[in-house]
Amino acid sequence: MDDFFDESQEDWKAILARLSHVRETGDYSAEDVELIRRELHAEDERVRGAAALAAEGCLFEPYILDLIIEIAEDDPNPPIRKAAIQSLNLVIEEGLAQGLEDDSGADTSLDYAEEWDEFQTGGLREDYQRAKGLLFSILEIEDDPEIQGLAVNALSDLGYISEVREKIVDLFQSDNASARRFAVRAMGKYPHFWDSELETIIKLDTPAELLKEAISASYSSNSPDVANAIEAILNHEDPEVLRYALLTLTNINQTKNLLEVLQQFILHEDEAVQKAARDSLEMSTRRNFDRYLKDYFGMGE
C-alpha cells in the first residue's frame, strides 16, 4: 500500500512538472495538448488546476475552450475556477486583435482578406462571444471578490465599455485588498480614465503591493498630477516601489527636472534601483535626442 501512494505521488508531481514546463516554454506539441485535455478531467485538484493554467496556450485546440468554460462555471474548487478564468484572457485579447468587438474589423490589405474571412465565419467569433458572455455573467452573479477581480482583469482590454468600468469602480471601493489590486491593475489598460483614482492611492501610507499596482497602472498615463504623486513617494523605503516609480515617472515624462531626479538614484544602495535609474536615464536621454533630431533636422524618430 505504501508503494502505491509513493508511486501516485510521483505521478502527480511528474505531471505538474510537465505542465509547468509547457506553460513556461510556450511550446505546445500535440502530445502536450492531449495531456492538458486529459488532465482537465483529473480528479487530483492540483493537476486539474495546473492544467487549467497551462490551457491558456492552447485554448483554440479542439474541446479545450469548452472544458475551460465548464471549469470556470462549475468547478467546485474556487482556485481552479480562478485558474480557468485567468486563462480566458487570451480569448478576449485574440478577439479584440481580430476586430471582433468592432464592425469595421477587417484589415483592408488584400493579403489579409482570406485570413480575416476565416475569423469572421469560423469559430473565433463564437468563442469570443462565449468567453465574454461568461465573464460578464461572473461579474453579475459571483460573490467572491477575487473571482470577480479575475473576470474584470480578463475584460480589462474592454475597459472603455461602461459595464466594465462600473465593475472596476465597485472593486476599487471594496474592502477586500485583493479585489482592489485587481481593480487597479485593470485601470492600467486605460489610465486616462482613472488619473484621479490612481493619484489618490499613490501615497506613502498605501500598502506596498497596492502601491506597486497603482504605479504600474500609471505607466501609460500622461497626467502631470499622477507624475507629481509618484515623485512625492520617491523616499519610500521599499526598493521595489522605487524601481516601479522611476520607470513609470520616466515614461509619463511630465516631470520638469526629471534627469536630476533620476540622477539621485544612480548610487542607491539597492542594485535594482540603480539599474532602474540607469535604464530610465537612457530612456529619457534617447527620447530627448530623438526629439532634437525631429525638431531641428526634420528626421523621424
What does it look like?
By secondary structure, the protein is mainly alpha-helical. It has a domain at 191-301: Leucine-rich Repeat Variant. Helix content is 70%, strand content 0%. It is built from 17 helices and no strands. Helix 4 packs across helix 5 (78-87), helix 4 runs parallel beside helix 8 and helix 9 runs parallel beside helix 11 (177-187). It is globular. The N and C termini lie far apart (70 Å). Residues 1-8 and 103-121 have low confidence and may be disordered.
Summarize the structure.
With 301 residues, the chain is an all-alpha fold.
Give the class-level CATH name of the domain at 191-301: Mainly Alpha
Helix % is: 55-70%
Reported CATH architecture of the domain at 191-301: Alpha Horseshoe
The residue ranges in which pLDDT falls below 50 over 5 or more consecutive positions are 1-8, 103-121
Instruction: Name the CATH superfamily assignment of the domain at 191-301.
Output: Leucine-rich Repeat Variant
* Overall strand count: 0
Q: From the alpha carbons, calculate the radius of gyration and give it in angstroms.
A: 23 Å
What fraction of the residues are assigned to beta strands by DSSP?
under 5%
**Element-by-element helix/strand order:** HHHHHHHHHHHHHHHHH
Terminal CA distance: 70 Å
Using the alpha-carbon principal axes, give the shape: globular
Structural class: mainly alpha
